[in-house]
Amino acid sequence: MENYVITVARGFGSGGKEIASKLADDLGIPCYENRILTLASQLSGLDEELFNEVNEKIRGKKFSSLLKGLPRTIKPKPVDDEFISDERLFELQKHIIENLAKKESCIIVGKCADWVLKEYPNVISIYIEASRAFCLQRVMKKMSVNEETAHVSITKTDQYRAAYYKHYTGGNYWTNPVNYDITLNSERVGIDNCVSIIKDYLKLKYPNL
Questions:
Q1: Whole-angstrom Cα distance, residue 176 to residue 183?
Q2: Does this model's pTM top 0.90?
Q3: Beta-sheet strand order (sheet of 123-129)
Q4: For the chain, what is the largest distance between any 2 Cα atoms, rounded to a whole number of angstroms?
Q5: d(CA 121, CA 114)
Q6: Vertex 82, ends 80 and 87: CA angle to 5°?
Q7: N or C: which end of the chain has fewer CB within 10 A?
Q8: What share of the chain is helix, strand, coil (3-state, %, to 5)?
Q9: pLDDT tens readout for residues 13-63
């Protein structure tokens, strides 16, 4: 095996992104989250703001005002002409994720990467979650908001991510443990210990790395 990929799905406020970043630093490999959007924008020539609009969320069956008038490379389905714009943007991100998995060792955060790469033999998929109380404290500190605002942010972000995942995986649900090699509770295990456990599992699964 020439390269490996670790995908990280995470509840909002659970520290999943921090874990992914620390893991990438320890392993000496890049970590992709919103850089996927930048790469998809560069590949397609479309405004990056279009990808930000659908970043792990579904806008609903309507075109972005920015997308109107742009040429389409995919012929829309007659029954779903209105939604094809979001589908096109997802396919571009999917193409980037698949290319990364073929070419380099890296960590990919979110973007349904575990599902996109589920048939790839060089992929480890991780899900990070924690209690609401733990996530609240992290969000309040990071965003400098009160508890009520943090509650709303966590609820809405996780709802967006769940709906996005369900749509693009054909009905699967985001927190399904069967989707992942490992599910970790970052509150109970600790951020740094989560990193250590994933590194240990990487060695177990790919002893010849």
A1: 10
A2: no
A3: 31-32, 106-109, 5-10, 123-129, 182-185
A4: 52
A5: 12
A6: 75
A7: N
A8: 55, 10, 35
A9: 999 999 999 999 999 999 998 888 788 778 777 777 777 777 777 665 433
The residue type of 69 is G
- Domain boundaries of the chain, sorted by first residue: 5-205
Facing residues of 124 across strands? Answer: 6
Give the total residue count for the chain. 209
> Which residue from 178, 183, 186 is spatially nearest to 134, judged by alpha carbons?
186
CATH 3.40.50.300 for domain 5-205, yes or no, is yes
The answer to whether 24 touches 30, Cβ cutoff 8 Å, is yes
Report the distance separating Cα 187 and Cα 129, nearest Å.
8
Pair 140, 150: CB distance under 8 Å: yes
Span 173-209, pLDDT tens digits? 999 999 999 999 999 999 999 999 999 999 999 998 7
Per-residue H/E/C for 24-84: HHHHCCCEECCHHHHHHHHHHCCCHHHHHHCCCCCCCCCCCCCCCCCCCCCCCCHHHCCCH
Spatial CB neighbours of 119, under 8 Å, sequence gap ≥ 6: none
What is the DSSP code (8-state) at residue 176?
Answer: -
